[in-house]
């Protein structure tokens, strides 16, 4: 109990000392003025019916549970679902995908706030997506008899190194989880070492394979080319989910590619639209480009910047191959499964711990190419562009990897169903 008191005190100090920074991110906006209130557990109304509460942090987690939520709604139409998110972008995307579901901001994990949130949101089951470990949420849910399960649980090698330093605390927290569904055997061993009870841990695979496969069946490459007015003889190379620290290096690679290949359209999609430096970098390099948000202005350029949300997969569907960002800096990489699901070879940097297991499978099957640095990336892109048959072969291998690893959604649904039928 002492550990939880100390944790609570640390959270309190964090809120107090970092309040100016926090306020900039949660201050009220015209379209939704309740952000800051929800962060402290002041939700607009009490949910009368018992609900299934899904908690996600990233937009990627949100997309990954889309097939799962759809299956729950199909099979259990009377069940009320609520989703909590941590970012305004996540809330916007969630409302676009699930307009009938109530979406709120996740409260600060401080005891008084969490107790109020549990009372107002009234969950009968809490589902944490990936490695969402909130000690106070787990503690007070246990007191109220609310089961809390983790799905698509993952612990990367780098995260594991960090968590081990706090094993004295995780041994107190993780047993509060009712059930844990991990992606791989190795990650299951890691969470057990950190303190999870072995009998509660199951290995079910990654639901991101299911999500990517499902999405790939809904997008027609021909329709997408027509939508953007891209001719069939134009070859497309995508640089997806780029992070600020790697944008300058990628721009130099793109500049060389466009000088060498006149039939190529390069598409850059920054990961964080509110933090990207891409436009200043392009201006410094004196490169012409078209912004998706301002089409048809400069649409005839051979470099497009996707400065809108929700369109990256459209370009994965029609590209020759894709480089997935966050992997040439010490971030750990973004999701390499999405282009693979569209039969596209995937280029990925050496910093890939966030998706280490998925990348190992794609690369191991011959569908992915690992790059050391920007020069290596340029060399391997040129090799692929000069060898179109290799693009086809590697694309099929990437797709086969996705097919071989689907099924986790149904396995996670089986776990959730046990608590819906009580």
Your description of this structure?
This protein has helices at residues 2-17, 19-26, 35-39, 59-64, 66-75, 88-97, 111-121, 135-143, 157-164, 167-173, 185-193, 207-216, 221-228, 244-260, 278-284, 312-318, 337-341, 356-364, 374-386, 388-404, 408-420; strands at residues 51-55, 80-85, 102-105, 123-129, 148-153, 179-182, 201-203, 235-242, 264-270, 290-291, 303-305, 321-324, 346-349, 368-371. Helices cover 49% and strands 16% of the residues. It has 422 residues and is an alpha/beta fold. The chain folds into 2 domains: 28-205 and 407-420, 3-Layer(aba) Sandwich (Rossmann fold), CATH 3.40.50.11720; 227-404, Glycogen Phosphorylase B (Rossmann fold). Strands 3-2-1-4-5-6-7 form a 7-stranded parallel sheet, sandwiched between helices. Strands 10-11-9-8-12-13-14 form a 7-stranded parallel sheet, with helices on both faces. The protein is globular. The two termini are 30 Å apart. Strand 4 (123-129), helix 8 and strand 5 form a beta-alpha-beta unit. The protein is built from 21 helices and 14 strands.
Q: How much helical structure, as a percent, in the residues?
A: 40-55%
CATH class category name of the largest domain:
Alpha Beta
CATH architecture of the largest domain: 3-Layer(aba) Sandwich
The class by helix and strand makeup works out as alpha/beta
The amount of beta strand, in percent, is: 15-25%
């Amino acid at each position: 109990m002492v550990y939880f008191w100390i944790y609570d005190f640390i959270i309190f100090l964090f809120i107090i000392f970092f309040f100016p920074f926090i306020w900039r991110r949660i201050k009220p906006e015209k379209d939704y003025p309740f952000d800051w209130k929800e962060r402290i557990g002041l939700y607009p109304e009490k949910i009368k019916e018992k609900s299934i509460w899904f908690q996600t942090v990233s937009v990627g987690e949100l997309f990954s549970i889309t097939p799962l939520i759809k299956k729950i709604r199909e099979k259990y139409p009377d069940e009320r679902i609520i989703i909590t998110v941590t970012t305004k972008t996540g809330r916007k995307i969630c409302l676009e995908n699930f307009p009938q579901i109530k979406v709120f901001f996740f409260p600060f994990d401080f005891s008084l706030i969490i107790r109020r949130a549990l009372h107002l949101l009234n969950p009968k089951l809490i589902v944490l997506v990936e490695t969402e470990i909130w000690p106070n949420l787990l503690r007070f849910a246990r007191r109220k008899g609310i089961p809390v399960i983790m799905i698509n649980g993952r612990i990367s090698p780098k995260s594991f190194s960090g968590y081990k330093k706090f094993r004295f605390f995780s041994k107190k927290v993780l047993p509060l989880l009712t059930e844990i569904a991990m992606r791989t055997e190795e990650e299951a061993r890691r969470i057990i070492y950190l303190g999870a009870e072995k009998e509660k841990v199951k290995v079910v695979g990654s639901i991101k394979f299911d999500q990517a496969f499902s999405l790939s069946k809904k997008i027609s490459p021909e329709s997408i080319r027509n939508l953007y007015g891209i001719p069939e003889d134009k070859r497309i190379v995508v640089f997806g989910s780029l992070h600020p620290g790697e944008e300058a290096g990628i721009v130099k690679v793109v500049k060389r590619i466009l000088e060498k290949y006149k039939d190529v359209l390069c598409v850059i999609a920054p990961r964080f639209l509110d933090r990207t430096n891409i436009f200043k970098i392009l201006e410094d390099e004196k490169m012409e480009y078209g912004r998706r948000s301002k089409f048809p202005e400069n649409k005839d350029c051979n470099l497009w910047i996707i400065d809108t949300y929700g369109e990256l997969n459209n370009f994965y569907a029609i590209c020759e191959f894709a480089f997935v960002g966050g992997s040439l800096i010490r971030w750990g990489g973004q999701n390499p499964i999405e282009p693979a699901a569209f039969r596209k070879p995937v280029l990925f940097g050496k910093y890939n711990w966030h998706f280490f297991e998925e990348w190992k499978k794609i690369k191991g099957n011959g569908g992915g190419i690992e790059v050391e640095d920007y020069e290596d990336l340029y060399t391997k892109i040129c090799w692929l562009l000069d060898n179109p048959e290799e693009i086809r072969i590697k694309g099929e291998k990437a797709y086969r990897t996705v097919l071989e690893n689907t099924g986790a959604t149904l396995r996670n649904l089986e776990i959730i169903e046990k608590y819906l039928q009580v």
